[in-house]
Amino acid sequence: MISALTRLADWSARTPKRLWALAFALFFTLAASWAVATPLGGSPDEHAHFIRAAAVARGQINGPEVMVPHMVAGIEGKFAETGVQLPEWYRQLPTQHECYAWHAGTPASCAPAIGHSGKTAQATTAAGRYHPGYYLAVGWPSLLVKGPHALYLMRLASALLCSALLASAVVTAAEWRRRSLALLGVAAAATPMALYMAGMVNPSGGEIAAGVLVWTALLSVLMSPDPRLLNRRLARVGIGGLVLINIRPLGLIWFAGALFFGLLLQQRGVLRSVLRRKALWLWTVLLGAATAGALLWAAQHPDNSVINTPRSLTAREAARQTFGNTETYVHQMLGYFGWLDTPAPAFTWLVWLGVLAALTALGLAFGRKREAVALLGMLVAVVVVPVAAQASQAEKLGMVWQGRYLLPFAVGLPLMAVLICASRAPGAGMPWRRLVGFAVAGLALADAAAFFWTLRRFAVGTSGPWVPFSAHWNPPGGWALWTAVYTVAAFALALPALARDREPAAADGPASGPAGVRSGRHSKAAPVG
């Protein structure tokens, strides 16, 4: 059995094109499963993003400002929303979730059916000031069909975009000689929350997937230099950066953070050789133009919402509360579904946190002093960044921070840890492939458990039976089908990490260097540890 799995794993990672296609198909299956198995309107603020995407697809990039009464984290205020002209049934979306959101014991069957009226009417969206690029990429299916089918197709378009970015991260990690370790980092970064958001119409999904690609490619450029792979890695950094920067203003901060820690971890002399590449300057110009465009867009579309925050909510008080919520934000990055009313089961959190803790400890143990300092700095940043961000904005916006906002940056922690191990840890003395095998199998099981737990919540509510045989709400095709599909895809995605690592070729230099993936030729594979 183990031999058959090894052969299958080796086959899956034999060529970059095959690996990319397989990873793309599996990531899409996982994201699409979330897209189908989550009720329409069952994820945070998705109604606003549906409306924004449909409007942008119809050429409505801007619209009149409409002040809408709203409650933000228990504080009353008025949101500055954008008015757009859409088919009348889009106006139903803001209330679609109200009967079951924040009521985890209530299944989603209480939601009213969505109509199909083609009559045009004004709808408003709180996402009207966001950059239109993401919404154009996911909104076009709304021109083809109407009603719920249009919404599901928009979710699948988002899943396609995110899956392409994540598959590119997998191929980049597989270019390392010790690819099993590198691929474990991508698996740990692709948390259930990341896959959940990938299947929703929400810029967070693309932001997180782009963050995984930027971190993987950037660290590969700076920590695992290989002239044959440099241009394609720079291209991946550039593509991921363009997506990250253009989705939301925070993307520029996350990209800068990845660049900062990447430079801390660079091998000696790498930056000098990278600066000589014309490809670097081409992507620098493109990213600079994207940055200028994103900043200009943000300056021209300020948030004029008025939130009546209490005087007691000072910057200091916001910082204190945010720091106290650190554990909650960590859980939200791993898995907190629905309208933050459906936490993943404890099993999912324990497995994921256990793997992350083990990877971080190994990175600290095997890394050099500068690398250990960078890893500790990343741990501190994961705690400090939300505190600083919310303290600076709470008096205007209230306590609105969610863990997923930080995830495009926080995915760098497991990637930094595993790539330090892939560079520094000795091949002999530790059963690396066995450890990776247990880790990816545990992550796959934890991921599947989170999916089933969330689907059960929507089907029968948290107070319902553990196995929802008599489901009040069912996704198209039924809950059993999608649970099986998701579980198989989650375990199949672990296979490439079980492939045997490559022996260093003559051009690779020391054993700690990479062995690039070359099309048409393959170095002899041998297990490490």
Rg from alpha-carbon coordinates: 23 Å
Helix/strand structural class:
alpha+beta
Helices and strands, in order, run as HHHEEEHHHHHHHHHEHHEEHHHHHH
Biggest sheet architecture: 4 strands, antiparallel
Description:
Helix content is 59%, strand content 6%. It has helices spanning 2-12, 16-37, 46-57, 132-139, 148-174, 179-189, 192-198, 203-223, 230-247, 250-265, 270-275, 278-300, 315-324, 326-335, 346-366, 369-397, 407-410, 412-424, 432-460, 479-493, and strands spanning 65-72, 75-87, 120-125, 306-307, 336-337, 342-343. It is an alpha+beta fold. Strands 1, 2, 3 and 4 form a four-stranded antiparallel sheet that branches. It has a two-stranded antiparallel sheet with strand order 5-6.
Write the layout of secondary structure elements.
Blueprint: H1 2-12, H2 16-37, H3 46-57, E1 65-72, E2 75-87, E3 120-125, H4 132-139, H5 148-174, H6 179-189, H7 192-198, H8 203-223, H9 230-247, H10 250-265, H11 270-275, H12 278-300, E4 306-307, H13 315-324, H14 326-335, E5 336-337, E6 342-343, H15 346-366, H16 369-397, H17 407-410, H18 412-424, H19 432-460, H20 479-493
Antiparallel strand pairs: 1-2, 2-3, 2-4, 5-6
